[in-house]
Automatic annotation (TrEMBL):
<keyword id="KW-0675">Receptor</keyword>
<dbReference type="InterPro" id="IPR013106">
    <property type="entry name" value="Ig_V-set"/>
</dbReference>
<protein>
    <recommendedName>
        <fullName>Ig-like domain-containing protein</fullName>
    </recommendedName>
</protein>
<keyword id="KW-1279">T cell receptor</keyword>
<feature type="domain" description="Ig-like">
    <location>
        <begin position="1"/>
        <end position="100"/>
    </location>
</feature>
<dbReference type="InterPro" id="IPR036179">
    <property type="entry name" value="Ig-like_dom_sf"/>
</dbReference>
<dbReference type="InterPro" id="IPR051287">
    <property type="entry name" value="TCR_variable_region"/>
</dbReference>
<keyword id="KW-0391">Immunity</keyword>
<dbReference type="Pfam" id="PF07686">
    <property type="entry name" value="V-set"/>
</dbReference>
<keyword id="KW-1064">Adaptive immunity</keyword>
<dbReference type="InterPro" id="IPR013783">
    <property type="entry name" value="Ig-like_fold"/>
</dbReference>
<dbReference type="GO" id="GO:0042101">
    <property type="term" value="C:T cell receptor complex"/>
</dbReference>
<dbReference type="GO" id="GO:0002250">
    <property type="term" value="P:adaptive immune response"/>
</dbReference>
<keyword id="KW-0732">Signal</keyword>
<dbReference type="InterPro" id="IPR003599">
    <property type="entry name" value="Ig_sub"/>
</dbReference>
<dbReference type="InterPro" id="IPR007110">
    <property type="entry name" value="Ig-like_dom"/>
</dbReference>
<keyword id="KW-0393">Immunoglobulin domain</keyword>
Length: 100
């Protein structure tokens, strides 16, 4: 977890997600906007990419990462972002709140 991060509108957003797993898990990014419940933003299975609403993430099995990126953030992107995984016996992931 990176904690709270503040960015200016138009800046590039990168939220790092690394994981530890015994196999190739399905990876997810969830977003939770203020006053709302979490919603699925991206989903990817072994070595592919996900994109939605200008956000994208590449599933990198070599360095076990699924970093979330957006080229130009807006105030409406202010939320808590969670990286999650499933389909493994041993799993870890985390989330970060970004104030934009």
């Amino acid at each position: 977890m990176d904690g709270q991060v503040t960015l200016l509108e138009g800046a590039t957003l990168t939220v790092n997600c690394t994981y530890s797993a015994t196999r190739y898990p399905t990876l997810f990014w969830y977003v939770q906007y203020p006053g709302e419940g979490p919603e699925l933003l991206l989903k990817a299975m072994k070595a592919n990419k996900g994109n939605n609403k200008g956000f994208e993430a590449a599933y990198n099995t070599e360095i076990t990462s699924f970093h979330l990126e957006k080229a130009s953030v807006q105030e409406s992107d202010s939320a808590v972002y969670y990286c999650a995984l499933s389909g493994t016996l041993t799993e870890t992931a985390g989330g970060t709140e970004y104030k934009l």
